[in-house]
Amino acid sequence: MSYHDPEPAHMASKARDAKVGGFNVLSTGGKLAVTLALNRADWLALIPQAARFIRDEDEA
C-alpha cells in the first residue's frame, strides 16, 4: 500500500477530522471506519445499543 493510495488517504483524512470533533458529520460507514482506525472503544460501544434499538423496533 502506498501513501499515495487514495482510499487509505481519504480514510486517514476523515479520521483526523473525527479526532478533532468532526465525527457527527460523517456517514455511518465513515463513522465505523474511523472508529476502527482510531481504535475508539467508546464509539464502538454504540453498536450494541443501536442493535438493541433495531431489535426493539422490529418486535414492536
Q: Which regions contain 5 or more consecutive residues with pLDDT less than 50?
A: none
Helix content, binned percent:
over 70%
Rounded to an integer in angstroms, the radius of gyration calculated over CA atoms is 14 Å
Number of helices: 4
What portion of residues belong to β-strands? Answer: under 5%
Q: What's the average pLDDT?
A: 80
The tally of strands reads: 0
What structural class do you assign from the helix and strand content? mainly alpha
Sheet having the most strands:
none
The tally of structural domains comes to: 1
Overall 3D shape = elongated
Termini, distance in Å?
Answer: 47 Å
- What are the secondary-structure elements, in order, as H or E? HHHH
Which features characterize this protein?
about 60 residues; mainly alpha; about 75% helix; elongated
Briefly summarize what is shown.
Helices cover 77% and strands 0% of the residues. It has 60 residues and is mainly alpha-helical.
Written description of the protein model:
Helix content is 77%, strand content 0%. The protein has helices at residues 6-22, 28-38, 41-44, 46-59. Helix 1 crosses helix 2 (28-38). The chain is built from 4 helices and no strands. It has one domain. By secondary structure, it is mainly α.
Secondary structure elements and their pairing?
Layout: H1 6-22, H2 28-38, H3 41-44, H4 46-59
Helix pairs in contact: 1-2
